[in-house]
Write a structure and sequence with these properties.
Length: 284
Amino acid sequence: MHPTLIELGPITLNSYGVMIAIAFVTALALSIQGGKRYNISAEFFNNIAFWGLIVGIAGTRVLHIAMFPHNYSWSDPIGWIAIWRGGLVFQGAVPPVLLFIYLYCRKHGVSFRNFCDVLIPIVPLGHAIGRLGCFLNGCCYGRVSESALAVRFPRIPEDLSVSPQGSPAYLDHLRQSLIDVGDLWSLPVHPSQLYSFGALLALSALVWLVARRRPFPGVALPAYFVGYGILRFILEFFRGDHNPAHFGAALSDQQVFSLLFVLTGVVIGYFMWRRHKREHNPAT
């Protein structure tokens, strides 16, 4: 766990923020390269990336506040916007960003379906890089486990005369009396962030292959929705950071969102396929 990568006087580079920045730059560079296949200009990608990033961050923050209102207080007004501390729920970005991209493509005469086949395979890659930031930050930790892959997160600071800080897993286990105040490490937990990292890399490769075969334009979008929904639903069983369950104790909110992702992907895929058939067989 390394929540802070570099401290240079008043300047602090947080690992979570750095990984988000790396993910953004990587996704933009790969998108510009892929856009050449459909004659989409680098300027178009630069513009849509800038505004899309703002819209996406706002969406992820709003959903995090809605899901975890107890983490926010008017006594700490900076905390509401301090995204460098973490606190982003990925699904919150998807609806507003997709709507923004659709409208922006229409305004500038760019095919939304072609744009999706360029961008969408890169989205899980960027998300995977962000998950490395989660691991370094210590958030999104997994359930207690005796697995050989399990990891422990530290007490911060190690000086026992000072009240412990940081390491969400450690503080969570301390609150549950699973460990003692004198312990320096949390219980071993699933490295759920690294599970997500691997799963998202695999999803990126799978969606890219589907987009290359291209049974119909825009296929990357429904393929991503279905694939991500399934992966996230499964990965949620390994999470230990108490994602809320407003829809019943059986499933977490994230798993409900995952099922909606799958359903949305199926619906979008059906209508895209029907449109493709109509375009190539107008009489049917």
